[in-house]
Design brief:
The structure holds four protein chains of four kinds.
Chain A lengths: L2 E4 L4 E4 L4 E5 L13 H9 L7 E7 L7 E7 L5 E6 L12
Antiparallel strand pairs in A: 1-2, 3-4, 4-5, 5-6
Chain C lengths: L21 E6 L3 E6 L5 H11 L10 E4 L2 E7 L2 E6 L4 H12 L5 E4 L4 E7 L3 H8 L14 E6 L2 E7 L5 E6 L3 H11 L5 E3 L1
Chain D lengths: L17 E10 L2 E7 L3 H7 L6 E2 L6 E2 L12 E4 L6 E5 L10 E4 L10 H9 L7 H4 L8 H11 L14 E13 L3 H12 L4 E4 L15 E2 L2 E2 H13 L4 E4 L2 E7 L3 E7 L14 E13 L3 E3 L12 E3 H11 L6 E6 L3 H11 L3 E7 L7 H8 L4 E3 L1 E7 L6 E6 L12 E4 L2 E5 L2 E3 L2 H4 L6 E3 L4 E3 L7 E3 L9 H15 L37 E3 L4 E2 H9 L5 H8 L12 H12 L3 H4 L11 E2 H5 L16 H6 L3 E5 L2 E6 L7 H14 L2 E4 L4 E6 L3 H8 L12 E7 L5 E11 L2 E6 L4 H15 L6 E4 L4 E7 L3 H8 L15 E6 L2 E6 L8 E7 L3 H12 L5 E2 L2 H10 L49 E8 L11 E2 L13 E9 L4 E9 L8 E5 L5 E7 L9 H4 L1
Parallel strand pairs in D: 1-7, 8-9, 8-15, 9-12, 15-28, 17-24, 18-19, 18-24, 19-20, 34-44
Antiparallel strand pairs in D: 1-2, 3-4, 5-6, 5-7, 10-11, 13-14, 14-15, 16-25, 21-22, 22-23, 26-27, 29-30, 32-33, 34-40, 35-38, 35-39, 36-37, 37-38, 40-43, 41-42, 42-43, 45-48, 45-50, 46-47, 47-48, 49-50
Helix pairs in contact in D: 5-6, 5-11, 7-8, 8-9, 12-13, 12-14, 18-23, 21-22
The chains are: A mainly beta, B alpha/beta, C alpha+beta, D alpha+beta.
The structure holds flavin-adenine dinucleotide (FAD), nicotinamide-adenine-dinucleotide (NAD), flavin mononucleotide (FMN) and zinc ion.
Chain lengths: 96, 420, 193, 1003
Amino acid sequence: MLHIYCPYCEEMREEEEFSYSGEAHIVRPKDPKSLTDDEWGDYLFFRTNPRGLHHEMWHHSAGCRRYFNVTRDTSTYRIYETYKIGEKPIVTGEKS
Amino acid sequence: MVDPMTKYSGFSLFKHALKHHEDWQKTWRSPRPKKSYDVIIVGGGGHGLATAYYLAKEHGITNVAVLEKGYLGGGNTARNTTIVRSNYLWDESSKLYDHALDLWYGLSQELNYNVMFSSRGVLNLGHNLQDMRDIERRVNANRLNGIDAAVLNTQEVKEIVPIINDSADIRYPILGASWQKTGGVARHDAVAWGFARGADQLGVDLIQQCEVTDIVVEQGAVTGVQTNQGFIGAKKVGCVTAGNSGVVAAMADIRLPVESHPLQALVSEPIKPIIDTVVMSNAVHAYVSQSDKGDLVIGAGIDAYNGYGQRGSMHIIEHTLSAICELFPMFSRVRMNRTWGGIVDTCPDACPIISKTSVNGLYFNCGWGTGGFKATPGSGHVFAHTVAHDDPHPLAAPFSIDRFNTGHLIDEHGAAGVAH
Amino acid sequence: MTNMYTPLHHITLPDTVADAGIVMREDKLRGHLNLRGNPEDQAFTETVAKVLGVALPLQPNSSAEIGSTCIYWLAPNEWLLLVAAGTQDQVEADLRSALMGQHFAITDISSGQTLVNLAGAKLDELMMKSTVYDCHSSHFPVGKVVQTTFAKTGATIYKCTDGSFDLVIRRSFADYFFLWLKDASEDYGLAVI
Amino acid sequence: MTNRLDQCNRMAEGGRIDRSQPLTFTWNGKDYQGYQGDTLASAMLANGIKVVGRSFKYARPRGILGHGAEEANALMQLGEGKETIPNPRATQIELFAGLTAKATNGWPSVDFDLMHWLGKLGGKMMPVGFYYKTFMWPEKMWMTYEKFIRKAAGFGHASAHPDPDIYDKLNQHCDVMVVGAGPAGLAAALEAGRSGKRVIIADEQNEFGGSLLATKESINGQSAITWVEQVTAELAAMDNVQCLSRTCVFGYFDHNFLAALERRTDHQGMTATSGSRQRIHRIRAHKVVLATGAIERPLVFANNDLPGVMLSSSVATYINRYGVVPGNRCVVMTTNDSGYQTALDINGAGRTVVAIVDTRQQPSGRLFEAAQAAGITIKTGHAVIEARGSNQVSNALIAPIDASGENVTGETVTVSCDLIAVAGGWSPVVHLTCHTGSRPKWDETIAGFVPGDSDQDQYLAGAITGEYTTLGALQAGAKMGALVTASETSTSYACEDESVCPPQALYLVPHTKSVSRAPKQFVDFQNDVTAAGIALANREGFESIEHVKRYTALGFGTDQGKTGNINGMAITAKNLGKTIAETGTTIFRPAYTPVTFGALGGRDIGELLDPARHTAMHVWHQQHGAEFENVGQWKRPWYYPKGNETMQEAVNRECLAVRNSVGMLDASTLGKIDIQGPDAREFLNRVYTNAWSKLAPGKCRYGLMLKEDGMVFDDGVTACIDDNHFLMTTTSGGAAGVLSWLELWLQTEWPELEVYLTSVTDHWATCSFSGPNARNLLAKLCDDIDLSAEAFKFMDWRNATVAGVKARIFRISFTGELAFEVNVPANKGLYMWQQIMAAGEEFGITPYGTESMHVLRAEKGYIIVGQDTDGSLTPQDCGMDWIVAKNKDFSFLGQRSFSRPDTSREDRKHLVGLKPKDPTVVIPEGAQIVPHAEVTIPMPMLGHVTSSYWSACLGHGIALGTVKSGNHRMGETVYCPLADGRVLAAEICSPVFYDPQGERHHD
Ligand SMILES: Cc1cc2nc3c(=O)[nH]c(=O)nc-3n(C[C@H](O)[C@H](O)[C@H](O)COP(=O)(O)OP(=O)(O)OC[C@H]3O[C@@H](n4cnc5c(N)ncnc54)[C@H](O)[C@@H]3O)c2cc1C
Ligand SMILES: NC(=O)c1ccc[n+]([C@@H]2O[C@H](COP(=O)([O-])OP(=O)(O)OC[C@H]3O[C@@H](n4cnc5c(N)ncnc54)[C@H](O)[C@@H]3O)[C@@H](O)[C@H]2O)c1
Ligand SMILES: Cc1cc2nc3c(=O)[nH]c(=O)nc-3n(C[C@H](O)[C@H](O)[C@H](O)COP(=O)(O)O)c2cc1C
Ligand SMILES: [Zn+2]
C-alpha cells in the first residue's frame, strides 16, 4: 500500500487516491508521420520495464487531478522522490 | 526402457512401500552445467520446462539446459489460480489455447506424472447487457472454431453452482455466463515437476539456482549466456522468464512491449467441498475454485503499478473479497489463510509473444500475463517448434513481436478479462 | 423555488433519532463555481481578489472565507467558489468581465454537486470509516480543505470552525453517499436536519 | 468416566478465570462447564477432553498442542446453521455461555474414526506426493478419484446461509504503531504514549500482557500482572493512545501500512447483537514497533502427535492463566531452561512430574537447581524418543542420547504418563516483518530466525529479536519507544534473576529405528508432514526449502507452520548437509492468522458494492415503472413497461412513438466536459479526428476520438459556446476515462496550450425529445427564440428559456428524427422533465429508455462505441472515413497508426448493415458471420453481429455487424450459424436502414 507525496497537494496521500499512468518521460514524437512503423510501434508499446529504479507517472485522480512523476524502486517499492511534470528526477542511479 | 521402479504407478508405490520408501530415485538430476548446449532455455517455469521437454521429445534436441535462477516452477507457475480453459475470442488465440487444452488431456499419462488436471468446467459470468453480448460473441466464435462453449442463463448457472447469489436485485445481478465444460484446474506444481521429470529423463539438464545475468551476442547472433555459475555457451537461447522478461530482454539490448505488474491471489482455510467448478467474473471481479485440499483459491486483480516485489496492495484483496461475498454470501464467515503475489508480464493486447527476435538464435516466449498457466503444454509445444526450426510454429506465427509494429494486435482484453 | 430539487431532496429517514451521533444537513442550493487560472499571474490573482473581496488561497489544501463566500483550494490552478444561493450567475458574470482578455476559466457547477455538513459526537469515527484521509484534528485543522475518497466515491472535505465537516459531493453519487452514510452511522444514530 | 460437569483438571484457585461465572458449553453434542475467562481449549482441557480432532491425511487422533495462534490441531466447527464458523482454533475462542463446537473431522466420531483405519492400513501407500505417482489410469477415472480425495480433505464446512453479521473498517493513522502487548510492546507504548504521540497498540489476545499473563515473575518488585494492569490503565487513560485488544495485526504492507482484525463480539456469542462482529483497522503508521514475541517449538519424536503431547509453555499457560493442569502424570522433555519452569508449575499445581527429560548433557543454573530442590527427577542427556497410547498418551519411551542429539546411546525405558510437555526452543514471531519482502536471518546463538533488514520504518523489541528475558523485553521496549519518539531517556525496569543455561539445538529426536522405519515423527501436525516425509522429499530431489514445502505441504496449513516450519527447515538442512542459514525459510505471507472474508469485504457489499449513479430525474423514472439497465455505474431507464407489456412490446411502442409523434429520453448520463481557453480549438483538433477550426458559436459537431493506436475509443458531440469556450459530450461509460485522457495530454505533452477542462456531467440534466412533433412540443414551452428549421438548424444550439427556465437547447439527433436536447442545471432537471412531459401529453409523449434508443439509432446506422466497436476498429473500419481530416497541421492522436501495414489493409473488418433474409427474424447479437450456409467446424468467420433489433417502424429485423471487407461486399448474403442449429441468412447492406437521406432530422 503505497504512500505517495503529491507534489501539488504537498502532502502524503494514500494509494487509493491515485491512479497509475505508466512509464514517465515518454515524449510524443514531434512529427509522427516521419516515423517508420518500427519507431512508431516503439513509441506506442515498448517500455523499459526495469527491475529497480523506475520513473513513472501517477495521477492524483481523487485529489488535485494533476499528473506527476515518481521515482520508485519496482522491487522494494520504495519511493525516492516525486516531482512535477516538466521537472527532472534527481535520483537516476544505475538499475539495481 | 524405463525401469518399473522408476515408472510411477500404484504398483511401484506398493513395492516401494515394502521398502519403507527408502529406494525412490531423484525426480530429476542436479547436474553441473556443461560448457555449452545446443539450446539453453532461460527460466524453469512451466513454460520453459515444457519447451525443453518438447524440444527433446518431438525435435530430438536433447543437448538442452534449462537455467532457473530460483527453484523449478517457483515463478508464476507456483502462484497462479490454475484455471485452464480455451474459450478466447479471436481465432489466433483460441486456436493456440485450444491446442494447449488438447494437450492437457492425457498429459498425466504422457508425463507419467499426475498433474491432476480436473476438467470440472469453467463459468464466466455476465453482469450487464454488454457482458452478455460479448459472451454470445465469444461463445459463437468458439463453437465455430470447434471449441467447447455454451451460453447459460441465470437458472442454468444456478444449477451448476447452487450456492451462487442469483438474486435479481443485487447491484450487478448475474445475467448469464459462458460455460466451458472441458476447462478446469490442474495442480500447478505437478505440472512443472512432471515436465521437469520428463525433460530430465530425456537428457535435459535442469540447473537451478542459476541466474542468467547477461545474454552474449556476437555479430548479431547469440553465443551463450553469462550466469552466476559462469558462462554457458549455446547455439540458441529461448527466454521464458514471464515477469522478468523485460529484464532479460534488456540483457540483449531488446525492449519488449511488456510491463510487469503484481497480480495477487489468496486461499481460504481448507473447508469441505462446496464449489465444484470454476467461477470467474470480470465485472464484479472475482475468480474462485476449490482445490483438492479444500481451500478456496481466489484470484484478485492486478496492481496498476509496475512491480517485481511478488506482492501487491491490500485494497486489491479487499475489493476481491467484497466481490466474493457478493457472489457467494455464505463465504462471508470463511477465512482467508494466505495471500501472495506474482509478477505478470502484460502485453498491450493481452496476448503472448512467441517470437524470434532481431538477434539470431534468440527467442522469446513471454507476455502471458495473467493467464498463461492454461497454455503451459501448448506454449512449450509451439515454442519448441519455433526454436527447433528457427521458424514459428503455425499457431505461434500470429504472436510474433512484429505485430506491435504492423498493428496486427489480437486484443483479448475482453476474453482475458483482467486476470486468469 | 419550487422548480429546484437538490441532489438529496428526496431522502427520507424512517424515524428521527434523538441523541443522534451523526447529524447531517444539506446546505442546499449554494452557488458552486469552479475557477481556473494561473496562480503565478498577479493580474489574475489580483483581479479575482478584487472581485471577491478576498485573496485566493494559494497554499495547498487551504481556504479563504468572506461573508457567505468560501473559496477552496483544489489544485494549484483550480479553486471552488461557494457563494450564496442564487448569486452564482452574478459572481460568474463579474469575474468574467473583470478577467476579460486573460486566460482563465469559470464554470458554474452549482447543480452538479451539493454541500453537506456532517457533525455530531461520532463524527471522528464516521470519518475514519468513510475516508482514507486522516481527519484527526492534529492533521486536519479548521479551514483545511482536502479532496479525497469517501467510501467508493470522492469528496471535497472542509473543516468548519465548529469542528464539523463540510463535504462537497457529486450529484449523481448523492444517493450512494447517503446510503453509505446511513449504513455507517447505524451504530450511532443519524439525524438529518 | 469423569463426570461431564466436574472439570477434573481444574485447579481450586489461581488463574485469570472467574470461578463465580460458570459457563455451559457443548462439545460434540455433550454439555460441559467452564468459566468466564476460559478459552474453549482451556475449558476442554479442564474437562479432561483429549481428542479434539483428526488429522488431515491419516485421520490420526489429535489433541490440543498449544494455547494461542500457534495451535495446529484444535480446529473447530464453531456454532451451527447460519452462524457456523469453520476452523477457528479452540485456543483462540473465548468461552461464552451456550457455545457449541464440534470436531471438524472424524467419522463416525473423533474418538473413533473409520478413516483412521484407512490411514493406518493405507498409510504406507501414502507417502508424501503419492498422488502424483498414481490415480493416472484410466485417464477418465481421475474425476472420480478426485471426488473421493476432495471429500476426505478440508476441515470444517462453510455455512449454507448468508452471514447474519456485518463487518466494518476504520482507516487509522498514527505516529507509532505497536504490535504486541507483552512486556516489550507495553513498555514501548508507554514510552510513546507519554511523549504525546498518536499511538496505537494492538494485541490479538483478549487482554494485554502477553506472556506475562502466564508467569509468576515480578517487575519492579511487584507481580508482573500488577505491572500489566497499571500500564494498561495508564495507556487507556491517554487520549492519544488507542488500545486494541482482540486485534490481530494480520498483514504488514508497504510504506508502513498495517491491517488488523478486531474481533469485537466473538467473545460474547456467535453473532453480534448490534454493530459489526469484526472490524478491520487499516493503519498507516509513521513508525512501527514490532513486539510480537516468540512461539515455542515442539520436538519431533515418534508418535509426537498423540493427544497429551503439548508445548511446555502452553502447559504452563494453562496452569497459570487458566487454572487448568492438563495431565496427572507428566513428563517434561526440554532442550532449554523453559521446560523447568513448566515442571515447577506442574509440581506446584499438585500433579506428578514423572521426570524432566533434558536433552542437554549437563544443564545447570537457577531453574535446574530449583527443580532439583523440588525433588523432581531429572534425566539429563535423555530424550523421549517415542510416545505410546491408542487415543492418547499412556507411555513415554525415554532413552539416553549423545551430545550431538543424533543417536540413541543406551537402553530405552518406558514410563507411564498422560502428558508430555515439550520444550524445543523458541522461534521469534518474525512473520509480519516478512510481509513486505524482508527475509529473516538465522541467529545461531538463539537457534532461531530473527527479522532481517527491512525497507520499512520498523523497530523491534523483545522476544522477536531473540531477547527472551522479561527485563530484556521491557528495556528493549522502552528503548524503542524512546527511539520512535526521539526522546533522550527511557524508563528503566528491574526484574528478578533470569539467568539461563544455553539451549541445545535439536530438531529431530533420534529413535532406535531409522527415520523411514520409526513410527511417524511429526513435524507439521496439521498437514501430517513427518520427518520421514521430508527425508523422502529430499531423497527425491526436492531440495529447495520451497520445493519441500510444496511437495510435503509443510507450513501449508491454517497455522502456516508456526510450530512446524523451523523444525522442518532444520531437518531439510541436515538431510542435505547444509546449514539452516543456507536452507533458509519459506516465505511468511499475510494473514498472520486467518481473516474473515466478510471483514475484508467490509461494507462494500450489497447495494454498496459499487456506487449506483442516478440522474436528477431518477425518482421520476422509478415512479413511472422504468426497468433499469446498468451502464457503467449509472442506472439508466431501459424501458418503461405498461401493464403486462413484454419488453419487446414496450420497446415497439416507445420506438413508434418517436417515429410517429414524440418520445423523450433522459440523456443526462452523457459525459460533459467544459473546455475554456484560447487554444480550445487547437486542442480539439489534436484529440479528435476531424477539424474544429471553423466551428462557429451556436454550432455543434460530432467527433471521434482515437487512442494513439488509431482505434476508436470515444465519440460525442461538441458545441461551440463561443470562440474560447466549448462543451464536449462523451459516452456515458467513457466520461471519466476521457477526461483523464484529455488532462494527460494537456498536462504532460501540451502544457503550452491555454485550455482548462472542467467536468460538468453532473451539472447538466438533459431531456432529449425526438419525433415529428418535437418542434411543436418545444414551441409550447419556449418562445424566446426562433425555432423554425431555417433559424434553428440541425446541429445548432441556442440559449433559450424553456418552461421559464434558462436552458441550452441542442438540435442534435441520435434517433434520426427531428430532435432537441434541452439542457438545464440538474437542480431543475426533474422540473423540466415534468414540464415537458406535461406539455407533450397532447402529442402522446412517451418516455423511452436505452433499449429503444439503441433501436432508433441502429435504424439510422449510428454506432455505439463499446458495443459496435471493441477497440479494434479504426474510423475507416466503422465506415466513418468522412470524419477523418486529412490535412490538419497537427498529426491528431491516432493518425499515424492508420498507415501501419495492418491498419491500412483493404480486407479489414468493416462495420456494415445486415438485413435478415427472413424479415421476421432478429439475429441474436453476438452471432458470428460466415460466408456459407453449411456449417463445417471449424469454419472461418467473417465478423460478428454487434447490434440487432426488431425495427417496429420498418417491420423487419435490422442489424449492424463487422464483416471482413464488408464495404466491398454490399448485397452479398452471409450467414449466422446459431447454437440452436439455425443458420440465419442476411444481406450485407448500408448500415442506414431508415431515412437514408436524413430528411427527417434535417426537417
Ligand atoms: C496470482 C496469479 C494468478 C494466475 N492465475 C492464472 C490462471 O488461473 N490461469 C492461467 O492460465 N494463468 C494464470 N496466471 C498466469 C500464469 O501463472 C503464468 O502465465 C504462467 O505460469 C507463466 O509460466 P512461465 O513458465 O512462463 O513463467 P514462470 O513460472 O514465472 O517461470 C519463469 C521462470 O523464469 C525464471 N527466471 C526469471 N529470470 C531469470 C533469469 N535471469 N535467469 C534464470 N531464470 C530466470 C523465474 O525464476 C521463473 O521461475 C496467474 C498468475 C498469477 C501471478
Ligand atoms: N522462558 C523463555 O525462554 C521465554 C522465551 C520467550 C519469551 N519469554 C517471555 O516472553 C516475554 C517476551 O516479551 P515480548 O513482549 O517480546 O513477547 P510476548 O510474548 O510477551 O508478547 C507478544 C504479544 O504479541 C501478541 N502478538 C503476536 N503477534 C501479533 C499480531 N500479529 N497481532 C497482534 N498481536 C500479536 C501476542 O498475542 C502476545 O501477547 C518475556 O516476558 C519473556 O520472559 C520467555
Ligand atoms: C493453487 C494454489 C493453492 C494454494 N494453496 C495453499 C494452501 O492451501 N496453503 C498455503 O499456505 N498456501 C497455499 N498456496 C500459496 C503458496 O503457499 C504460496 O504462497 C504461493 O505458491 C506463492 O509462493 P510464495 O508465497 O512462496 O512467494 C497456494 C497456491 C496456489 C497457487
Ligand atoms: Zn494532489
